[in-house]
Amino acid sequence: MSKIAFIYPGQGAQKAGMGADFYENSEIARAIYDEASRVLGLDMKELCFEQNDRLDMTEYTQAAMVTTCLAMTRVIEEMGVEPDVTAGLSLGEYCAVAVSGGFDDMDAVRTVRIRGILMQNTVPAGEGAMAAVMGMEKEAIEHVLASMEDVTIANYNCPGQIVITGRTGAVQEACGRLKEAGARRTMPLKVSGPFHSPMLAEAGKELAKELEKSAWKSLAIPYVTNVTAEEVTDISKTPKLLVRQVSAPVKWEQSMETMIRAGVDAFVEIGPGRTLTGFLKKIAPEKKVLQIGTWQDIEKVLQELK
263 lies in a domain? Predict the structure, then answer.
């Protein structure tokens, strides 16, 4: 029997206008955006649907993305498509936990609002950086970084694409060493901090206090965590995993391999952009990958999966 996975993008996929067509066409989507506005004291329609400077600021981006992805998901579920397992890249893991039944949508939205503020403010601007490394095996990258301080791997995205993170000078030095060691290309990322770096351990400690406020519930289906790339079926493990996730590497490639071994043969990326679709085409090009980012995408997905 075929298995369906819902997967959720992380920060960086956001764009003005995301979810507006869902708000216009669905009562469920409208309710999620309106409730998120009330819970956060922010105008989520303005933040997500209109051109503005705040959408790319971490403290706003995270709540906007989770609200949008959850609104899209609840519409799809209402139409009869439900996942057997979920996963999300970094920020997207909060959507995965909510859709797996671990906590309510508004708990997810409220928590990532605080998470975004903590991640943006824990390390002073300019002291941390991230860079993508293209065309180099992960083992070779790990070997180069093993002899360096203040720089680590942030994301194992897919074959040929790894992201590094750490202190700005260390990341710049690492980029030079990695190119000398054979990397095809290194590219600084436009981010506001050294995400998934030990430098954010303090943000994780503060996040733990916020996670204590959530009303955790038994998982209806498993999700795959970034931290270990393993399926989680026991919700009691989730708070500690989400705390670790802030400063630990995102094992996305390994997470997708876990899902494939579990029998997933159809992946549905839900949210703006096609980042995860691109990763999966490199991880497992033979698998079916669908994407829902606009209202028009729904019909194709329904035809493919029903």
Answer: yes
DSSP state of 262: T
User: Does 161 share its domain with 107?
Assistant: no
Plot region of 282 (φ>0 → left; ψ -120 to 50 → alpha; else → beta): alpha
Domain total of the chain: 2
In this structure, are 140 and 109 located in the same domain?
A: no
Question: Is 193 contained in some domain?
Answer: no
List 26, 100, 192, 196, catalytic entry: 196
CATH number, position 92? 3.40.366.10
| Residue 252 token pair | 């996305």
The pLDDT tens digits along the chain (306 residues) read 589 999 999 999 999 999 999 999 999 999 999 999 999 999 999 999 999 999 999 999 999 999 999 999 999 999 999 999 999 999 999 999 999 999 999 999 999 999 999 999 999 988 999 999 999 999 999 999 999 999 999 999 999 999 999 999 999 999 999 999 999 999 999 888 999 999 999 999 999 999 999 999 999 999 999 999 999 999 999 999 999 999 999 999 999 999 999 999 999 999 999 999 999 999 999 999 999 999 999 999 999 987
Query: Which 8-state DSSP code applies to residue 194?
Result: -
Residue with tokens 């998982």: 219
Are 64 and 33 contacting, i.e. CB atoms less than 8 angstroms apart?
no
> What's the DSSP call for residue 16?
T
- Which residues span the domain enclosing 153? 128-188
Does the predicted TM-score (pTM) go above 0.90? yes
What is the rounded distance in angstroms from the CA atom of residue 73 to the CA atom of residue 71? 5
Query: Do 9 and 109 sit in the same domain of this protein?
Result: yes
Q: Does the annotation mark 2 as catalytic? A: no
Annotation marks residue 218 as catalytic: no
